[in-house]
C-alpha cells in the first residue's frame, strides 16, 4: 500500500493548483510535452524552470515554476535542438540541393525538409516536435477571400501581396520538388502540394528565431537567417516584454535572457519586435491588446 500524503503536501498541492488555475492550465503532464522534453534532453537540453501551459488571453505558452529575477537566463537551447539550413544539408536532401541549379534559397530548403519530414512522420527524428506544430495558421494567407474583403484597404492589399508571394515561391520551386521523387513511393505532386507548402512557409515565418548563418554556395544569395527552436517557440509575444535573444557561440546554445522579473506561475513572454498590429497579423496571425506600437494605416489619395 502507498503511504498517505501528509497535511503539508495537501496544503502545498492546493496552493499550486490555485496558482495554476489563476494563471494558466499546466500542460507539462500531457504525453506530447513529456515526449518533447525527453527528445530535447537527449540532445543536451537541460530542463528549465518553464512549463507549457494554456492561458486565457494568449493561448498556449510557457509558465515559470519559480520566481525569475531580472537579467536571468530563462532558456538555453543547444544547437543540436535547432532546425536550420545545416540540419537540412546534413539530411537526405543534401545531394539534391548540391546539384540543383540555379541554387534554391535557404527558405525553400527548410520548407522542403518540413514537408518531407511531415510526410515521413512516424519515421522522422523530428516527430516529437512535428506533433506539436499547428496544423493550420491564422495568418491572412490562410483566410478566405470573403474574409480578406472585410479588411481595411491597406491591410487587404498587404495580405494579397503576401499570398501572391507564396504562390510565386511555390510555382518557382515545383521543379526542385519534382527532383525529389526518388525519395518517395508516392507522387511528389501529392506530397509537395500548395497546401503543404503554405503550411511549411507559415511554420517558418511565424515560429523561427533569427540566427545568421554563413553564406553557402549551394544556396542562393538570400539571407540564411532562420532557426526553428522546439519548446522555445512556445514563448508568446508581449510588446512590453524586454529580453535579449541570440545564439551564444561560446556555449553553442540559443539563449534568451529576460530584463524583467516574473512571479512564480506567471506566463513568460518575449517580444517579436516593435510591431504594430497590422504587422503582427500579417506575419504571425494575431494582434496584441494594448499594443504601444499601434498605428493607423491609410491609403494615399491622389
UniProtKB/TrEMBL annotation:
GO terms for molecular function: protein-lysine N-methyltransferase activity. Residues 1-16 have a biased composition (Basic residues). It comes from the Eukaryota. Residues 48-273 form the SET domain. Residues 1-22 are annotated as: Disordered. This is SET domain-containing protein 4 isoform X2. It comes from Thamnophis sirtalis.
Amino acid at each position: 500500500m502507498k503511504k498517505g500524503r501528509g497535511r503539508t503536501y495537501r496544503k502545498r498541492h492546493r496552493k499550486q493548483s490555485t496558482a495554476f488555475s489563476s494563471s494558466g492550465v499546466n500542460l507539462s503532464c500531457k504525453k506530447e510535452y513529456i515526449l518533447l522534453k525527453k527528445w530535447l534532453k537527449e540532445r543536451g537540453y537541460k530542463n528549465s524552470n518553464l512549463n507549457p501551459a494554456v492561458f486565457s488571453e494568449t493561448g498556449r505558452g510557457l509558465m515559470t515554476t519559480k520566481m525569475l529575477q531580472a537579467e536571468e537566463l530563462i532558456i538555453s537551447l543547444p544547437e543540436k535542438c535547432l532546425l536550420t539550413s545545416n540540419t537540412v544539408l546534413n539530411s537526405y536532401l543534401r545531394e539534391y540541393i548540391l546539384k540543383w541549379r540555379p541554387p534554391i534559397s535557404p527558405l525553400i530548403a527548410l520548407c522542403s525538409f518540413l514537408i518531407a519530414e511531415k510526410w515521413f512522420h512516424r519515421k522522422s527524428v523530428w516527430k516529437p516536435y512535428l506533433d506539436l506544430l499547428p496544423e493550420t495558421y491564422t495568418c491572412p494567407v490562410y483566410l478566405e477571400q470573403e474574409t480578406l474583403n472585410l479588411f481595411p484597404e491597406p491591410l487587404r492589399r498587404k495580405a494579397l501581396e503576401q499570398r501572391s508571394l507564396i504562390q510565386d515561391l511555390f510555382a518557382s520551386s515545383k521543379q526542385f520538388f519534382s527532383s525529389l521523387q526518388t525519395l518517395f513511393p508516392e507522387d511528389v505532386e501529392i506530397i509537395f502540394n500548395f497546401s503543404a507548402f503554405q503550411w511549411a512557409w507559415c511554420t517558418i515565418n511565424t515560429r523561427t528565431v533569427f540566427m545568421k548563418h554563413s553564406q553557402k554556395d549551394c544556396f542562393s544569395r538570400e539571407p540564411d537567417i532562420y532557426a526553428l527552436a522546439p519548446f522555445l517557440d512556445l514563448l508568446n509575444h508581449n510588446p512590453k516584454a524586454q529580453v535579449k535573444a541570440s545564439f551564444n557561440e561560446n556555449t553553442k546554445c540559443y539563449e534568451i535572457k529576460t530584463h524583467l522579473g516574473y512571479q512564480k506561475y506567471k506566463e513568460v513572454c518575449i517580444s517579436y519586435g516593435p510591431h504594430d498590429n497590422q504587422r503582427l497579423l500579417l506575419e504571425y496571425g494575431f494582434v496584441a491588446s494594448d499594443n504601444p506600437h499601434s498605428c493607423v494605416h491609410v491609403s494615399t489619395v491622389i
